[in-house]
Amino acid sequence: MPLVRNPILPGFNPDPSILRVKDDYYIATSTFEWYAGVQIHHSKDLANWELVTRPLSRKSQLDMRGNPDSCGVWAPCLSHDGEKFYLVYTDVKRKDGSFKDTPNYIVTADHIEGPWSDPFYVNSSGFDPSLFHNDDGKKWFVNMLQDHRRRPRSFAGIRLQEWDPKSHQLVGPTKTIFHGTELDLVEGPHLYKRNGWYYLLTAEGGTAYEHACTLARSRNIWGPYELHPQKHILTSKDAPLTALQKAGHGDIIETPEGKTYLVHLTGRPTTQNRRCVLGRETAIQEAYWSDDDWLYIKDGPVPSLYVDLPATRDDTAYWAEQNYTFSARAGLHKDFQWLRTPEPERIFNVKDGELQLTGREAIGSWFEQALVARRQTHFSYDAETTISFSPTDERQFAGLTAYYCRFNFFYLTVTAHADGNRELLILTSEMSWPDGNVKMPLADSVKIPQEGKVKLALSIRGKALQFSYAVEGDKLREIGPVYDASILSDECGGHQAHGSFTGAFVGVAASDLNGTETKAGFDYFIYRPVEHESDRYDI
Question: Can you tell which superkingdom this protein's organism belongs to (predicted)?
Fold first, then answer.
């Protein structure tokens, strides 16, 4: 059987938590400020995955208005105790500076598609929480513990406490069961039990190029925990030329046949600047239990690009052109998300055969901006849409955007000058942290007719981004210079290391800074993958 090439979840799909219920596999991944919260993919064979739900979909579960970029939903943990599903997650409200505000919650459901319960608050002592269902019926809650004093570390270790499913509260004593290794930044804990051993898998080294999976074990859940002979069972930190970089934050799964795999976060850098424009993705590795009762990665600890899975992968859908149309009956396609708000009706509606955006705050707002987009899942692609929009002045603008965060985006807009005459204007925010200033060169603006639809398009080939446009009856023509799309990456976001965690999106947006809720309509949206030399990672 042909080997399967990593990643198994391409594009922005970080911090995987994997679960098997009978013959069904599920992976939950972080969504940060993108709504609805948490992506859950399903598979029957570990090779072919389909997005089935985003469970945090209403205000009582998740409201991220005001959350800064790369805050929101961090590192969910999906589990099942034989009766119901449990989803543990953090809604990070602040991450920069000495303090992190990190309330942790649990929601439950009888079926993966839901309905999912309102959240049970657990604690706020750290992030990356996980729930372990022991074979004696007890449930244990673990999370990384933060210390704003840094005595001696801000990532102070892994904290353990029992969680009572009847009262939905933590009960009994607490203990820091693992302080991590010298690699530091211990997080992402998962507990397992096998042959009388408790195994603690953690992530260390931060989520960039020093990332690693660290394994420890103990005969007692309270410890002490001894380190694996390799210490880090998976890491790319010492192999800078391997295709899968940033390997870490993993979770372990066994097939019904007894084969063991580890899913993990990874990144695929491009350009000499090593920028991961597709964000942090999910990969999988073959693993095995040795006679010493330790888990090892096949050919590890460096991750393999190709793995032997129970089935081959069908890439037909991955490479197919996606032509999204909009109907009220079908609603918004599941590939799309928006930012922060649990009240999407305030920023968009699908009606009359178009996606209708209501102009709100400026692009990059942390509160209420009308932006609907899908993940960039290929290194090269084309995107296209047609817009109906009648702005009256320069404070009303809408169009097509390649977006990472407030500080990194490219935006081709239909707007108007102060005299009310329509024009095209490119707005760019290129590594503008911390000021967030936008460039809008007058030389690249183009006058367009007062009436009629406008076709907007962009092409990305590797790191090169080019916008195009066409008024009704004309062919597409280029507008503006070639931009460096590689800045739409973790490495160039709000922080250059350990601070930007999402990935590049492409979509449509609308703003009305007058507060008059001007609407922009989009007839369709095309996302066309293009195979390019950047897609070849056969190292």
Answer: Eukaryota
